[in-house]
């Protein structure tokens, strides 16, 4: 077990409305936007986020942000200080990509620690457009955050609908 562990809270709602230090984006490798959470964050956060993403592509991630990694930008007009972009794996029936999904949560918390963020909101990474079954996505999210040593004090899982909320509630207990 980790020596420092954040408290876990569950909210049913929209991640773009969370007043936290850092909001995690379920991005793609291009870092240049998409649908789902990614679309909502860029829409509500405004063009400053995309400008930072373009700079990151030009400086550090010419080939894109690899799956399982995380990187921070401004949060623009969102009620947060930073957006931490991470790239979840696309679900595949013939291959176990769980470790990559766990890595998204771990790496996002590592970046949060670097920033000094104490409250972090996560969506259910990979469980939308990337097709990960919700119950398994919730299991990996909760187990990984609980096993990560971090100075983050609150991890808030922001679930879009009742099914997602139930899946996380079953895991948090
Ligand atoms: N707040 C909270 N949760 C949300 C919101 C919201 N505003 N919108 C959707 N969800 P997804 P992925 C839920 O598709 O599966 C993008 O095009 C949604 O119901 O956002 O990791 C990226 O650019 C689901 O449970 O992310 C990538 O190409 C969860 O958030 C790709 O989608 C994640 O769904 C990433 O796919």
UniProtKB/TrEMBL annotation:
Pfam families per UniProt: Macro
Domain Macro: 1-173
NCBIfam families membership: PRK00431.1-6
Protein name as annotated: O-acetyl-ADP-ribose deacetylase
Gene source species: Streptomyces lydicus
Organism taxonomic ancestry: Bacteria, Bacillati, Actinomycetota, Actinomycetes, Kitasatosporales
């Amino acid at each position: 077990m980790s020596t420092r562990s954040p408290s876990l809270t569950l909210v049913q709602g929209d991640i773009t409305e969370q007043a936290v230090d850092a909001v995690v984006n379920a991005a793609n490798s291009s870092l240049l936007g998409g649908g789902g959470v990614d679309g909502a964050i860029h829409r509500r956060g405004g063009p400053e986020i995309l400008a930072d993403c373009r700079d990151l592509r030009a400086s550090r991630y010419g080939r894109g942000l690899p799956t399982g990694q995380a990187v921070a930008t401004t949060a623009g007009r969102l009620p947060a200080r930073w957006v931490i972009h991470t790239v979840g794996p696309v679900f595949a029936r013939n291959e176990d990509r769980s470790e990559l999904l766990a890595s998204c949560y771990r790496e996002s918390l590592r970046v949060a620690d670097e920033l000094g963020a104490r409250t972090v909101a996560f969506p259910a990474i990979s469980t939308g457009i990337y097709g990960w079954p919700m119950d398994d996505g919730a299991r990996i999210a909760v187990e990984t955050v609980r096993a990560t040593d971090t100075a983050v004090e609150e991890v808030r899982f922001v679930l879009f609908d009742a099914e997602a909320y139930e899946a996380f509630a079953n895991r948090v207990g």
